[in-house]
Amino acid sequence: MELNNSIELLNKTKQQRNILAIFQLTQLLIILILAIALLREDKQTIILPSIISEEYLLTSNFLSSSYREDLALDFIYLILNVNPSNVEENYKRFLNNVSAGAYPEVRGQLIAMMETINKKRLSTFFHVSEIASNRDFVKVKGRLTKVLGKTVVENKEKAFAIKFIRERGAVKINLFEELDEI
After folding, report:
1. What is the pTM of this model?
2. Per residue, what are the HEC states of 7-29?
3. Could you identify which of 70, 131, 150, 179 might form a hypothetical disulfide with 159, taking C-beta atoms 3.0 to 4.6 angstroms apart as the criterion?
């Protein structure tokens, strides 16, 4: 009698194990289906510049020139209108928008600029005179003024190029450089 009870208990345990295994396999299948659906879905990220000059068109592989220009202006102002009290925070915010591939180079550029600003206690101001874009770059020209206290140390025409890419559904900076030609 005790043997029959043990066999019956063993059979019930096997049934429960099998039911549990079926549920676990079903969960695994559902997770895989959701993961594949998530990876295939076109993600949308909305990043708005502080000033909207005209309507924007953003798709998975296209950014309108007006959007790229407004975004470039925001980023130019963020990193070129700085002083020792805000330079570190502005550069961190800028770096949060740099693509993974360009990050080391851009970070190196910004660190060098930040060290100069902090060491010399400079304030810099950039006044845009012209902005132009093509499919690859946004080119921003203007006057960069460096001030020490109330004394203008440097006041030169400068030009910068910014290139944007789509990275994991977000618009990221892929290149930021000062141009030799003005």
Report:
1. 0.66
2. HHHHHHHHHHHHHHHHHHHHHHH
3. 179
Contacts of 131 (CB under 8 A, 6+ apart): 69, 72, 73, 138, 139, 140, 141
Task: Please give the mean pLDDT across all residues of the chain.
Answer: 85
Provide the pLDDT confidence category of residue 180 given band limits of 50, 70 and 90.
confident
Q: Exposed, middle or buried, 46 (CB in 10 Å: 0-12/13-18/19+)?
A: exposed
Which distant-in-sequence residues (6+ apart) come within 8 Å of 21 by Cβ?
none
Residue 97 near residue 90 (C-beta atoms within 8 A): no
